[in-house]
């Protein structure tokens, strides 16, 4: 549907920190269904197509557990190509005895779970955009019960589990932030996103190209929540894919005009949102 391709700006990759790389690799391969693209003693790049990575794992030195009530990752969201893919992964979770949460968001159907370190994961499929409801620039989203009976009628329980299908992408990321006013300015005036849904005074959902959201931002860990320690499990960084070099230069100028800092490390443009979440700007 084009929401995760240029000329839109979208989340292309997420990198998370884990306590034990070997344990996490076992989980992400056997439970979630990724394959390993590259691996070192402390890092791994995961793939579904054998060519590109949408998720990376890192085991920091002197790693510490998640402290809670901090900024950082709420969840990253894996978008599957077809509704049958979501049904098939439900059958897989049933076979594995994996407990999951679920929701019908009107724009999408979603499953929720956490990895061994408590990193939040959403696995979802989008409904056709023609079924989304827009009103005054905001898209209607809710948290309704998922109709599993109808969903599973689209799956193939007898088919062997083959992991995440080719065509799976990083659909969005949802972050804990310390406040919303400066955060909204950073992501809209700085990075060029549009607010497409407000959840009271506690959360914002933003996108480009009229997607329901490429990024969610919430203060559910408390206004003024501090960033986690650098060696804590959780979010290391996420990558935004920009349309071209001109667009990136424009974003850099906009970020600097609102007081944000952009640095270049090994030809990678890096910035931090007001809550300390690390963002890589790529083209």
From TrEMBL:
Name of the featured protein: VOC family protein
UniProt cross-references to InterPro entries, sorted A to Z: Glyas_Bleomycin-R_OHBP_Dase, Glyas_Fos-R_dOase_dom, Glyoxalase_1_CS, VOC_core
Domain of life: Bacteria
Domain VOC: 10-126, 169-283
Species whose genome carries this gene: Metabacillus rhizolycopersici
Keyword terms of this UniProt record: Metal-binding
Pfam families in alphabetical order: Glyoxalase (PF00903)
């Amino acid at each position: 549907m084009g929401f995760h391709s240029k000329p839109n700006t979208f989340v292309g990759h997420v990198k998370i920190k884990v306590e034990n790389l070997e344990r996490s690799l076992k989980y992400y391969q056997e439970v979630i269904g990724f394959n390993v693209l590259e691996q070192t003693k402390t890092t791994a790049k995961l793939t579904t197509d054998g060519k590109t990575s949408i998720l990376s794992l890192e085991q920091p030195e002197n790693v510490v557990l998640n402290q809670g009530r901090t900024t950082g990752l709420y969840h990253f969201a894996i978008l599957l190509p077809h509704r049958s893919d979501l049904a098939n992964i439900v059958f897989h979770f049933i076979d594995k005895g994996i407990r999951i949460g679920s929701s019908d968001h009107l724009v999408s159907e979603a499953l929720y779970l956490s990895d061994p370190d408590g990193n939040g994961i959403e696995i979802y499929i989008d409904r056709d955009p023609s079924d989304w409801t827009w009103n005054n620039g905001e898209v209607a989203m809710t948290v309704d019960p998922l109709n599993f009976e109808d969903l599973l009628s689209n799956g193939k329980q007898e088919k062997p589990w083959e992991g995440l299908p080719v065509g799976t992408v990083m659909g969005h990321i949802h972050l804990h932030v310390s406040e919303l006013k400066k955060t909204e300015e950073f992501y809209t005036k700085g990075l060029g996103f549009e607010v497409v849904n407000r959840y009271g005074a506690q959360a914002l959902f933003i996108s480009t190209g009229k997607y329901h959201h490429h990024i969610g931002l919430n203060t559910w860990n408390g206004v003024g929540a501090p960033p986690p320690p650098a060696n804590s499990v959780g979010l290391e960084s996420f990558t935004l894919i920009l349309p071209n070099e001109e667009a990136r230069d424009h974003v850099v100028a906009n970020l600097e005009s609102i007081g944000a800092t952009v640095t270049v490390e090994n030809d990678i443009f890096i910035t931090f949102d007001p809550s300390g979440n690390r963002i890589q700007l790529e083209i």
